[in-house]
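Sample entry (434 residues):
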Amino acid sequence: MTKILIHAMVLPMTGADAFFPQGEICIEDDKIVSVGVLGSAPAGFEPERILELPNDVVMPGLINTHTHAAMTLLRGYADDLPLMPWLNEKIWPFEDKLTDEDIYWGTSIALCEMIRSGTTTMLDMYASMDQVASAVLLAGTRAVLSRGLIGNGPNGERALQENIELVRRYHGTGDGRLSIMFGPHAPYTCSADYLKKVKVEADRLKVGVHIHVAETQDEINIVREQYGKTPVQWLDELGLFSGHVVAAHCVHLTAEDIEILARQNVCVAHNAESNMKLSSGTAPITELRAKGVVVGLGTDGASSNNNLDLFGEMRSAAFQQKLRVNSTVLPAYEVLEMATVGGAQTLGLEDVGVLAPGFKADLITIDMDQPHFYPRFSIPAHLVYAAHAGDVRTVMVDGKFLMEDRRLLTMDVGKVCQETETRAKRIAMDLNVK
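Predicted structure, serialized as tokens:
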């Protein structure tokens, strides 16, 4: 058994008033044993390691509820375009050139970035997901993976079989760090019959569904022209929303759509920065939360953001809602909840998202002894409005250190960066020649 004691400021995310300015966390193997003030360790707890971090805040690891990790290979490749031309003219042609190995290395550099910026769990949608799983298992993070399914494409049926095989091979592996969902891309890329097939398989295998919904006005127009309904109304009519569903984006919603999402307990992955950059719009997060919809935060892929920094995403999410509603909505602690507790609920994970006895030891420490964190009137406000990726000092998942003193322990960062550069430039040159 491995026992670790951390002395630090502790923000457990168990309530707005829960904060220990001089606190400690006891960890045994992969679980948290106790959280409280200094000296609150259980009698007889004898740690093998003690981390003295009095100027760090310990909090739950951040949870990225929607991304396409391997698209980090396209970072900076296709900027300043609206969604549909961006996809059709730039992204999909590039992706057609990707090999399985490319996807492995693209995922690996995304995981390096996420670990260094405090993200311990992601919900990913892409192809060659066995490569993504391999990268996650090596990196040591937690992940929910879904095979991206474009039902209207030539490989729709094969992709569906790959998603089924992904469940069989990887669901619950990595000591439970990996979970699998089905990933139909969007209402405008999947037919009714195809979506029904996906739902049948998801129900049979007892896993959830991860899908883009109401991301752009173009999508609204396409679905309304084909079916006479909004995407949310159409998916609800198909029965897709029964069970565990994560709907990414949900930017263009009617009042009826919001009622449907709330009634069906659909979770929403909010991607503020991607939606801004692609000019997709601003999701009505304030209204969704008021109706009881669980909302998590996502970065989307690095091709449309262009980073995977959830601290920046928290700040953008807060500012967007204040701009569209008023300055009082979505205060800092609620945004932190979306990045931790809400993220865990969105992904259907019951033992992460807070620091409490019995929960997994997925945590990060933030170095608060820096000029932009003084004076310390409000730790939650500093974390949402002032913090950035480089402030993360320590990252732990399942009680294992993935980063200490800003040094990544599970991945060779230099090799990952070089592989990524070489592979991305090869594809770009090939496309330019042709």
